[in-house]
Amino acid sequence: GPCTECSCSSGKEPDKDPSHTKKKEDGDRLCVPKIFFGTRTHKQITQISRELKRTVYSCVPMTILSSRDYTCIHPVVSNSSNRNEMCVELLEGKQGRSCSYYHGVHKLSEHRALQSAPGVYQAWDIEDLVSLGRKLRACPYFAARELMVEADVVFCPYNYLLDPQIRESMDIKLKDQVVILDEAHNIEDCARESVSYGVTESQLRAAREELDFMVNNNIRQKHHEPLRAVCCSLI
Prior knowledge:
Elements: E1 5-7, H1 9-12, E2 28-30, E3 35-39, H2 42-53, E4 62-64, H3 68-71, H4 83-92, H5 100-103, H6 105-109, H7 126-136, H8 140-147, E5 153-157, H9 158-162, H10 164-169, E6 178-181, H11 187-194, H12 201-216, H13 221-234
Parallel strand pairs: 3-5, 3-6, 4-5
Antiparallel strand pairs: 1-2
């Protein structure tokens, strides 16, 4: 359909997220909707980007959003079990250390292999991004997020689109965009998972003990008693 003039969110909003350092200079411009393409697994994204490479649309600006499990290249963080927390701690510089890969993000996001220059740009997958990131010593995780600002097609797992917390943390705005869900019969399970949480019996028992302590010591009793009742009924 015909595009209307509007002030795009990428140009107008204050920069809340450190990954979105590159903003549009020209306030008003034509708003072309992005296509958000959601898949069940990361592996399927690789297959789809390979297919895209074989079409006439392989020169369309794109990005792939994925977790740090796939895109972190920091030697310590990438081998850790809690990559997200370690990454955030490094970026906040709590212990006087920082992440040199994060500071090289622009080297990767502005690299000609990923830019839509005529005859240069072509569809890529996570492995391409990561190997280029290693070569340039630049963070693929944040580069992929930065590329979202200019991308026409954004590939990501379902839960990035379905889970409001992930949408917010990744700065994904779906209003007036095109959303395609591959193998959509899996959506119900995925939606259920995104609002579900698993606990073990031992965690419940430990929680009950702590709540017992709170109640017996008159610590905010009226808040803790109903919680204790829930724990007991689940056990």
